[in-house]
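REQUEST
  id: r-88c1
  op: predict_structure
  target: AsmA-like C-terminal domain-containing protein
  payload:
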Amino acid sequence: MSVTIVVLLVAFVVNRYWSPILAGKIKNGVAKGSNGLYKVDFADVKLNILEGKLIFYNLTFKPDTDVYNKQNKQHLAPNTLFELHAQRLVLSHIHPFKLYFNHLLDINQMVLTNPEIRITYLLNKDKDTVTADNRTLWQKVKPDLRSIHIGNIFLNNANFKYYNHATGKPMLTELKEMDMHGNDLLIDSATQTDKSRFLYFKDVVADLNNYKSKSANGLYTYSVKRLKLSTRLSQVNAVELSWEPVKTALFIKSTRKDKFSLKLDSAQLNNFDFLFYHKYRTISCSSLILSNGNFDIFNNPNKIKTFKNKITSFPGIAVHRLKTEVKIDTVIIKHVDINYSEFNKKSRQIGTISFNNTNAKVFNFTNNKIALQKNNIGKIRVSSRFMDHGKLDVAFVFNLTDKNASYSYKGSLGTMGLQAVNPATIPLAMIKISSGTLKSLNFDFKADSKRSKGKVIFLYNDLKVNILRADTTNAILKKKLIETLFANLFILKHNNPDKEGEIPRTFNVNYTRPINTTFFSTLWKTLLIGIKPAVGYDDKTRKAATERMAQGDLNKKIARQKRNAQTTTCTA
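RESPONSE
  id: r-88c1
  status: 200
  body:
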C-alpha cells in the first residue's frame, strides 16, 4: 500500500511540474516553426503520467495578423492560412522523459473530436519565395527539439470552412462531418527534405460522405456521395457525383443560359500533386478518369442571339479561361451518354441528338505556361454511338497557344438506318426520314476560329423523306403531301453514288464562321454544308426547286382561271 501511495504522489508531482513544461514546449515549437506566424493557446492542460495522456482544453491555433501583414508587405506571406478551434485535444501514450532528457517529442496518438477548421486562401505568390532564412522546419525547432514524432492524428467529424479569395469574389465552401487521419508525422534530420511525405506525414487520408451544396447563382445543386483522398497514394476518388439544375420552368424564368446536368458513377485523379495544390491551388496529375454516367445539355428557348464573338467556346481558348491552373496528362472518359436537346417553337416539340456510350481520351489538357512551352498540342480521340446506332469515331488536334484557335479534325460514321435520326429531324427540321441507309460518312477538316476547310463524303441508299407541317389545333405534325412528293421526285438524290460502281459524289467545304457561332455549332454546320449537296438539298438546288414548284403553282392557277373563264362564256 505504501508503495502505491508513493507512486501516486510522485505521479501527482510530475503531473503538476511537467504540464506547464510540455505546454511551453508546444507553444514555443509552434511559434519558432512558423517564424511567429502562428500561435497556439488553450484554457488548461492536464498531464496524466500514469496513463501517458495529455489533455488540452479549449484549444485555439490561429495566425498572428500582425506577423502576417508584415510578411505580406515583404512578399513572404504564405497563400494559405489555417485556424483551428477544439474544445478538447487528447494526446495519448506520450513520453515525457524523452522530451525532458533527450528533447524528443514522441506521441503515439492525437485525437480532436468535432474540431472547427477555417482555411483561407489568398494568392500572394505563384512560386516559392527565396528568403534570407531558408532553413527547414526541423532546423528551426532543432535548438529545442531534436525530433517531433506523432504516430497518428485523428480529426473526427470535422467542420471545414474554406474561403477562397483568389477568384475575385470570395467563395465559401463548407465541408461537414469529414474525417481525417494523418499517419506518421515525423520532423527530423532525415525527413526535413523528404519529398515523398506530405507536410511531414507519411500519409494523410480524408473521407467525406454525403456532401451537397448549391452553385453561387442558386440554379444548380451539386453533390458527391463519398470523397476519399490519400496523399501516399497521390489519389483522389469520388463516388456518385451529380450536378443538377432546378426545375425547367424556374430555370428558364431565371436565366437565358443553356441548362446542363451531369451524373457520374465515379471520378478518379491519379498521381495528384497535393503539395502543389496546397500551395497554389493548381491541379496537376497524370490522369483524370470519369466513368459511367450522362451529360445533358438543353438549349434555352429564351436565349437572345447576339453578335458577341464566341471564340471563347473553342477548346484551345476555353482552357485558358479556367479560373484554376490545370495540368493533366490524360483525361479518360468511359461509358458516358451525351444528349443535346432543343425546343423548336415552330413544331412545339423538343428534339434530341444523342451520343451514347461515349468513350474519349484527352491528351495534354493544360493551361500551364511552362508545360505549353514544351508541348502546345492537345489531342482528343472520341468513340461513340450516334443516336445509339452508328459507330462514330473522331480525332481532334488543337493548337493550345494559337490566338486564332487553330485545330483540325477527321472522323467517320458507320452504317446505320437513317430513320434513327428522326428524334432530331422531326422536331428540329420538321422532316421525317421514311427510308434510307447510311453506308458511311467521312470528313476531314483543317480550321481555326475564322474559317473551316475540308471534305465530306456521304454515302447512302434509298433516301426518302416526308415534309411536315405543324397542326397547332391538334398539337401534332402532319405530312405535307405536295411538298413531300415534290421533294422526293425532284429534289432529293436517293443514292450516293447514283448507281453501283459509279464514282460517289464528294464535296469540298469552305466555311466562314460568323463570330457569334460556337465551336460545336461550327462543327455541325461544316458537316451539314457537305451533306446537303450530297442529298440534293444545297441552296442552289433548293432555290431552283422552289422556283419550279412556285411556277407549277402559278401554271395551275392560270389553268384554273382559264377553265373558269370558259365556263362563264359557255353559261353566257
